[in-house]
Specification:
208 residues; mainly beta; hypothetical protein yedk fold; 3 helices; globular
Length: 208
């Protein structure tokens, strides 16, 4: 499950659906930022504009011990095979977005330690990931990343991957016409990366 992705690029191509102002804001982001659950990040709305939202839907679940208060959890990813369920159904039908990313990370265990792998597009182009969003009283706008079956590049590492959209899928997705994803056809490559969780200098929130 993807729980980290990266922002911060100075070039790359943009789909026609993204407005010029949103392109300028994305290209003007200061430096590189690792986005983790609950942090704010930019998303592209169906009208091509950019909005800043927090990563993750907040949900309450019944406590495992009877008599205890409900447990609040942040759910950052929405599985393709669960989109018809109550948590995601309305947002998938009515509130879609694109999540722009320079890279996404998956973790593997090697020599007794966890190691992040950094997945990118050849040529270091943008990744455009299918997302959904909702408005909350407590946190404002929040988004979730759709995950799907892994393609051949990701499968040796993880049994899920972000729903990275090909150029021809972006318009139909934002218009509410694309309902299935399957393994992404977008070509990917990966390399080992430094463990950005250890030791962390504090990661600041991304400000737009």
């Amino acid at each position: 499950m993807c729980t980290a992705y990266e922002l911060g690029k100075r070039g790359g191509s943009f789909p026609s659906q993204v407005k010029a102002r949103a392109m300028k804001e994305l290209l003007g982001l200061p430096g590189t930022a690792i986005i983790r659950p609950t942090l704010p990040a930019p998303v592209i709305l169906p009208d091509g504009g950019l909005a800043t939202m927090r990563w993750g839907f907040r949900r309450s679940f019944a406590a495992k011990v009877k008599g205890r208060p409900p447990v609040a959890r942040t759910i950052v990813n929405s599985r393709e095979d669960k989109l018809a369920g109550p948590t995601w159904r309305l947002a998938f039908r009515e509130r879609r977005c694109l999540i722009p990313a320079a890279a996404f990370y998956e973790w593997v265990e090697r020599d007794g330690r966890n190691l992040p792998l950094r997945f990118t597009r050849p040529g270091d182009d943008w990744l455009w990931i299918a997302g959904i969003w909702e408005e909350t009283e407590q946190d404002g706008g929040c988004f979730s990343m759709i995950t799907t079956e892994p393609n051949a590049r990701v499968e040796p590492v993880h049994d899920r991957m972000p729903a990275v959209l090909a150029a021809e899928q972006i318009g139909p997705y934002l218009a509410g016409e694309l309902h299935q994803f399957g393994p992404s056809a977008v070509e990917l490559e990966f390399q080992e990366a430094a463990n950005f969780l250890k030791p962390p200098p504090a990661q600041g929130e991304l400000l737009l």
